[in-house]
Amino acid sequence: MNALVVQPPFTQLNSPYPAVYYLEAFLRERGIEARAVDHSIELYRSIFSREGIVPAFDAARRMLDRGSSPAAAPIDPASLSQLERYLSYEALYLEWIDSLVAFLSGGDPALAHRLAQAVELPRGMRAEAFLEARGGRIGSHEARGLATALLEDLGDLVSFAFDPSFETVRYGERIATSAARFAPIRAALDASPLLGSAYAALLAAEWGKSGRAPDLLLLSLPFPGCLLGALACARSAREAFGPGMRILFGGGYVSTELRGLVDGGIFDFCDYLCFDAGYGSIDSILEVEAGAPKERLYKTMYRDGDGRVVAAGFSDSDDAAAELGSRRRTGCDQADRLLAAEKEALAAIAPDYAGCPFGRYLQFVDSENPMHRLWSDSPWLKYRLAHGCYWRRCSFCDTRLDYVSRFAPVEIARLVAAADSASERTGLYGIHFADEAMPMRSLLAFARANRLRAGVGKRPFHFWGNVRFDSTWTQDRCEYLAASGLVAVSGGIEIATDVGLEMTDKGFDLAGLARSLVAMKRSGLLVHAYLIYGFPGQSRRDIDDSVEVCRQLFSAGLVDSAFWHRFVLTRHSRMYGEWLEGGGSWPDLQPRESPWDFANNDLGFAGEESFDEFDGPLSSTLEAWMRGAALEEPRAGAGTAPGRIEELILEAEAELDARKPEGKGQAHWIAGLPAARPLGAGRSRLAWAYRGESRDLALPSEAATATATCLAALSRASDGRDFGELKAELRRSGRLSEEAIYELRSSGLVVL
Ligand code: SF4
Fold first, then answer.
1. pLDDT at 277 > cutoff 80
2. Ligand 1 neighbour 436 (Cβ under 6 A)
């Protein structure tokens, strides 16, 4: 049996979305010959090439000739003038485009100098703004930013003149998100200029290369912006290979939006929908395809001979098992066994990215913000430390879905082995943990394994991922993790007020948040925060207070970047679940539902329009802060005192500085190696470097030598050493005082 696993367009440009490589590794474990391909990056590269961009210019020419858009809407004078400029620069764009893509994929570094020197560059609004902000000329170190702006200008041309569903990292998202009916999606697919031309050509080439038909074609749909691409891919594969091949759709979009599916139209394109982690569903499909009865299917939907959707193998409490319209439900005769096998796979499977062409990905520089750059200007190996969230309580989150509610940490040894193999093949040592929130225990275990690797001469990994700003982030752990390769964290603050944190049930208050952030920033970690506004019942005053606290967090340097999300009430959220059961903490919530027979996730609620006024202004305020502007302007209307965060920082620092020598746990030495330097008269200086500064302790010579030996051994011990035992030895052999141990605790000796 052989399988092709496809990422349909579009997802991010800097690295592959990991699901297809996880699926490839899983299928290989099951003895299936599997190959993963990323049509997202391939289609992007095909459009943004000398030949591929021509249809966008042709479309622009037609628009200008007609004086109206394809939908016969008049074009405003500003857009007309932009189109004229694009067309005037067409030849230059065609001359530059392949070089720009190659440059942003890491090739032809010398192009930086050409970009810095060139006066007559093709340019649209983004490149123009980029150059104007720098006085019209750039240095070669800014060339990637200009190349990004030039390609984004072309992206604007594609979406304006050729295909309005195109966005750089998604396609047709607005059509697919919570689309109540399937018919408009089918119509959008049939009318799609881009999928019908560039993607059709790419698919034809792909099937030609494949030679024989795959037995299984798996398409991963992490987001709504992949649905139309998946349908186009599936339809083309069916036409090329006939009905014998089985086509499976799965991923976050399927699991989140299609649990209430009644219309079987999507099964004109695929045979099965796989839900949640997918491994159990795929195992059950393999068994059914090998002859087992359909009652074997686990967490899977299909269309039966009567044209009815069948929801197979879901538990009674699952939304996917609800009685809806003509939908039928069946049980799974081997649910426990399949669940156990899935658990095992979740813990053990990690891809080695063996066939992944990392050199095809682009490193966009669309911001100078260091956290934004980390996000998009580097390729990352993507892994996860756990499936699900160890907290799974936030009121707005989809806690009723498996990808949040079922917490299952991975086996660190298997993960490190896979990452080792990937690094050797790709030369990449950066890992993005794409978890819901990295669990501290797993993170520490990974950091220890990383130190161990470095200790045997292997190049260490550098890594980042999502976190909760909870009390597990102590100063010692932050220092240890930062010294072991952690570079950045992103996490939800959501509503930055005590009332808001309680309402969202984040599990920490403002003082706790400040403590975690201070510990993180003292350790040099970059921090990105997710913020929410428009929560049901949130007062204007609370939004202003949250904005004011965020301003203070930026101003104090505790947060490097952030993003405001407008709250969306979702069907699988804890909040909606509590409301269904009689209100819970949300007796005043009035969800707005519309009839559906296809996707159903986002819900409206009474009063949500009152938050419209915040949509644009909050983002602009945030952008100003991230540029370092307007940081000293308190939010009008906020009741929060302008010095609130400063107060909390002082409290946090006092608490963090009072780290007692009597702390419990495993001790680790993360500073430079200490050495004993004789001072004369039987005394020596124990000297070492910590964070670039020299530290020392004057001790009796014998004690200095014994302490240096003890700490050197500790620095080699990847598991560290019990702090109580270590202190006893330091006191005994080094005759160290409490003050001296305190000095060590502030300068490289951490206790986890
Ligand atoms: S928002 Fe994040 S931390 Fe909260 S429950 Fe969801 S995944 Fe967990």
1. yes
2. yes
Total domain count, the chain? 4
258 lies in some domain: yes
| Whether residue 399 has its Cβ less than 6 Å from ligand 1 | yes
Span 195-254, pLDDT tens digits: 999 999 999 999 998 778 999 999 999 999 999 999 999 999 999 999 999 999 999 999
Please indicate, yes or no, whether residues 625 and 695 belong to a single structural domain of this protein: no
Domain holding 9, by residue range, is: 2-40+173-348
Could you say which of 348, 381, 416 is where a domain stops?
A: 348
64: phi then psi, degrees, rounded to nearest 5: -65, -40
**What is the 574 CA–ligand 1 centroid distance (Å)?**
11
Which ligand 1 atom is the nearest neighbour of the CA of 389? 8
Q: 425-445 burial by CB neighbour count: b if 16+ within 10 A, else e?
A: ebebbbbbbbbbbbbbebbbb
How far, in Å, is the centroid of ligand 1 from the Cα of 604?
A: 21
Determine which of 12-21, 113-122, 458-467 has the lowest per-residue pLDDT on average.
113-122
The amino acid at 628:
G
Q: Among 390, 396, 399, which is best to mutate for testing ligand 1, by the most ligand atoms less than 8 A from CB?
A: 399
Dihedral angle computed from the Cα positions of residues 27, 32, 33 and 39, in that order, rounded to the nearest 10 degrees? -40
Q: Is residue 360 part of a domain?
A: no
Q: Where are the beta strands (DSSP E) in 27-168?
A: 33-38, 166-167
540: Cβ contacts below 8 Å, ≥ 6 apart: 637
pLDDT one-digit tens code per residue, 99-157: 999 999 999 999 999 999 988 899 999 999 999 999 999 999 999 999 999 999 999 99
Domain boundary among 599, 628, 657: 657
Q: Report the predicted TM-score, pTM, of the whole model to 2 decimal places.
A: 0.96
Is the distance from the beta carbon of residue 439 to the nearest atom of ligand 1 less than 6 Å?
no
Cα-Cα-Cα-Cα dihedral sign, residues 444, 446, 448, 450? negative
Which residue is closest in CA terms to ligand 1's atom 6? 397
- Please tell me whether residues 457 and 545 are part of one structural domain: yes
Tell me, in angstroms, the distance from the centre of ligand 1 to residue 508's CA.
13
